[in-house]
Design goal:
Four Helix Bundle (Hemerythrin (Met), subunit A); binds heme C; mainly alpha
Length: 185
């Protein structure tokens, strides 16, 4: 749990530096999702908005760097979950930590995509079409948020089969967004 708190703190700091006001609601929303009600409803938490204010220069570079780190953390959590999903007796303590992180992060994702942080601004895998079709990008972020909440709810309930099914579903929401909005390596 200690690691989760540290990571959540890091993403909070990022939110504060990259997106301003709208992001301030995200930590509270993540907390609300920890309550029984939030977990049962799934994705009761508010989804951050895409920032409307464009970044440039140093602040754009910093936001892009932080976004990369943010996704790397999410990716690392998913590696843990991938291994667990293939195990007959997964380490549910590790699973719970990773799913809690994924759910908390899922509330913040759109806030990482300020205008001015696309391919024109430097090295990034974020495609320019994100800012050309924000409604669809938001819909894909919402699908991920809903799936991540269900994933965490199954894990926290020690529902191993439910966790495995929800893991596959959640992975599908990552892929759906990457297929359209992330540049292939
Ligand atoms: C709504 C869209 C969206 C969803 C949902 C999404 N991603 Fe991504 N992801 C992106 C974009 C865009 C990038 C490129 C970011 C960049 O390079 O700045 C990215 C980058 C990454 C990276 C590479 C980090 C980097 O910057 O090189 C990893 C790892 C990753 N995502 C994992 C995941 C996982 C795991 C999930 C689901 C649990 C997920 N993503 C869900 C849009 C999404």
């Amino acid at each position: 749990m200690r690691k989760f708190v540290l990571l959540a703190g890091a993403s909070l700091a990022l939110a504060a530096c990259s997106a301003g006001e709208e992001e301030a609601a995200a930590p509270a929303a993540a907390e609300a999702a920890d309550t029984e009600e939030g977990a049962a409803e799934g994705a009761a938490a508010e989804l951050a908005a895409m920032p409307t204010e464009a970044l440039s220069g140093e602040s754009a570079a910093m936001a892009m760097h932080d976004r990369h780190e943010w996704f790397e953390e999410l990716g690392d959590a998913f590696k843990v979950l991938m291994r667990a999903s293939k195990s007959d007796a997964p380490d549910m303590a590790a699973v719970k930590e990773a799913t809690a992180l994924a759910e908390a992060k899922s509330n913040d994702l759109p806030g990482l995509f300020a205008p001015g942080t696309g391919p024109d601004a430097g090295k990034t895998e974020a495609k320019a079409n994100i800012w050309e079709s924000p409604d669809d990008f938001m819909a894909k972020a919402k699908d991920f948020q809903v799936a991540a909440a269900a994933l965490n709810a199954a894990a926290q309930a020690d529902d191993v089969d439910g966790f495995k099914a929800a893991f596959g579903k959640t992975g599908g929401t990552c892929k759906a967004c990457h297929d359209t909005y992330r540049e292939e390596d």
